[in-house]
Design goal:
This protein has 364 residues and is of the alpha/beta class. It has 9 helices and 13 strands. A 7-stranded mixed β-sheet has the order 2-10-9-8-5-3-4. The longest helix has 21 residues. It starts with a strand and ends with a helix. The chain binds pyridoxal-5'-phosphate. The site of pyridoxal-5'-phosphate has 11 residues, from helix 3. It comes from Streptococcus raffinosi.
Amino acid sequence: MTIYNFSAGPATLPKPVLEKAQAELLNYQDSGMSVLEMSHRSPEFDKIVKDAEATLRELMAIPDNYKVIFLQGGGSTQFSMLPLNLAQGKKAYYLVGGSWGKKAYTEAVKLSKTIPFEPILLASSEDTVYDHIPSFDPSTIDPEAAYVHLTTNNTIEGTAIYDLPDTNGVPIVADMSSNILAARYNVEDFALIYAGAQKNIGPAGVTVVIVREDFLNDQPQLSAMLDYRIQAEAGSLYNTPPCFSIYISKLVFDWVKNEIGGVDKMAEIQREKSGLLYDYIESSDFYTNPVKDAKDRSVCNIPFVTPSKDLDAKFVAEADALGFKNIKGHRSVGGMRASVYNAFPRQGVLDLIDFMKKFEAENK
Ligand SMILES: Cc1ncc(COP(=O)(O)O)c(C=O)c1O
């Protein structure tokens, strides 16, 4: 039975990447050791981390005045690291279009009880279970604020921001965890981008941060591990980094570059692949996608429901038995969610649609 893994993260990795990692696992490029065993100060690993950075820079067209850092602590650590480094003594606005954006805001509020800065909720679509990207009046934003934080792809709710909003000149900071490399963004439009790797980049354990140099912290009081400047100046090697996760990420960057042909091509593939499922859901009067406005739809996470919770549960159970794994929606929204990140095969979407048609015919 073919298994299709619709997990929202950690998620499907490109098969050629896994095969290469397997082939190199015991003896990395004649070093006589595995990357799993290698010193992070060795020339071999130094080349891995530098190549990973160089290829990511090329893929995303990251300008020279931005630093690229590979950190630990997941996307969640960035919720605190970001205001610690960028917002002290200032206002920081949060555009909340999903549960992860709310977490970022909630963490900022918590931190502001002990660190002097003022997190402000710019807009939220929580009252309609984040079924759309909220809008706001840019003139309400204090132009002296540190940043406007937004989530480019709401993993749980299946919405995305492709055209950045007017923020009254205030720099934009983005959590790009679930659509980095799946849609084209202009890095220069952001002060900082962060992304947990475990969806479109690689395995869990590494978080990519891309930060414009003039936003690096100038004050020495931060813990070194939480200081972007120290991490950047150490070239992601301030302490022992998640070496194997960085290595796999490097292989994924190579895959996007050499086998796919870059981010624009990847984005086109994602639009077409997700479009197959969106079009089918739209044409069906049995399934519904809770995201109403097509322009807000994620190319990576596609939520949908049947007419009832009982049928949703039946769908998940039957799908699972047929090899469509991890398709249950997040507990906060229910229903189903097909996460079809960059490495997810198009055939998996086609086979899912066939199953959905059959389920519809049997249960309508
Ligand atoms: C958009 C987004 N931000 C942040 C996170 C949290 O990431 P982590 O589990 O790496 O802390 C997730 C996890 O799924 C996410 O989807």
